[in-house]
Amino acid sequence: MSPRDALGRRPRVADALGCSRLARVRAPLVKLLKDPLLHFLVIGAALFAASAWRGQSIRGGRERITLPAEQVAQARDAATALKGRALTRDELAELLEPAVREEVLYREALALKLDENDDEVRRRLVEKMQYLTQDVADPAPASEADLEAFYAAQPDRFAVPPLAAFEQVFFDPDKHGAALDADASAGLARLNAGAAPGDVGDRTPLRASYTNAPRDQVAVLFGDALAGAVFGAAPGAWIGPFRSDF
């Protein structure tokens, strides 16, 4: 029989090996219970359960992000033109990564309702609506009398300026010197006799011929005196010689 004490209870006996085993079992358990990661998981599970109990949807954060095929093709074609070769799969993914990141940030901003109570967002939306709604309705057709009154009130808006088409033959003062006027008059006679303009005179620093040139353009290029002579001359004949203001 096992020895008993005076009260009839069996004495407790713990050997050194049993204490050592107990210590080895308790130490990892105590360390695990103090781990912050375990606390985080427990709290997250509790929040998940509470949200599910209240009927709230749980966002897993794994919504699919799909870029439009047109956007992908445009980015790929532009990069291919710059590199001079087709992109690899990894290069294309790296090229599109900023667009994906932007979409993620946009969705998270909407989830956090950052677009609400924002004056800048409000202003941009108002501008877009103004753009979409402007000039939507066709104006009522004007009557013949309204058109005539509008024309009579603003004739300058409908005036067509006089235009001239002409050729010029240039005589360089540096080449002809004191004989400039005589050489120009002789050249005019040759032109009226049928000589080709390219065979008379010197190389001009401006264009040799002008078509539908307004008076103010001729005045800027050659001076007011020559512009007046051009627009006052009868068509078809050579006139001059004229000395340009320049």
Describe the structure.
- Helix 9 crosses helix 10 (224-232).
- A two-stranded antiparallel ribbon has the order 1-2.
- 54% of the residues lie in helices and 4% in strands.
- It has 246 residues and is mostly helical.
Describe the protein's topology.
Layout: H1 16-33, H2 36-53, H3 69-83, H4 89-111, H5 119-133, H6 144-153, E1 163-167, H7 173-176, H8 180-192, E2 209-214, H9 215-222, H10 224-232
Antiparallel strand pairs: 1-2
Helix pairs in contact: 9-10
Helix content: 40-55%
Strand order of the largest sheet: 1-2
Strands, count: 2
Strand content: under 5%
Q: What is the count of DSSP helices, taking H or I runs of 4+ residues?
A: 10
The low-confidence runs, each spanning 5 or more residues with pLDDT under 50, are 1-20
Average pLDDT value? 78
Short description:
The protein is 54% helix and 4% strand. The protein has 246 residues and is mostly helical. Helix 9 packs across helix 10.
Task: From the structure above, extract its key features.
246 residues; mainly alpha; two-stranded antiparallel sheet; 10 helices; 2 strands; 54% helix; elongated; disordered N terminus
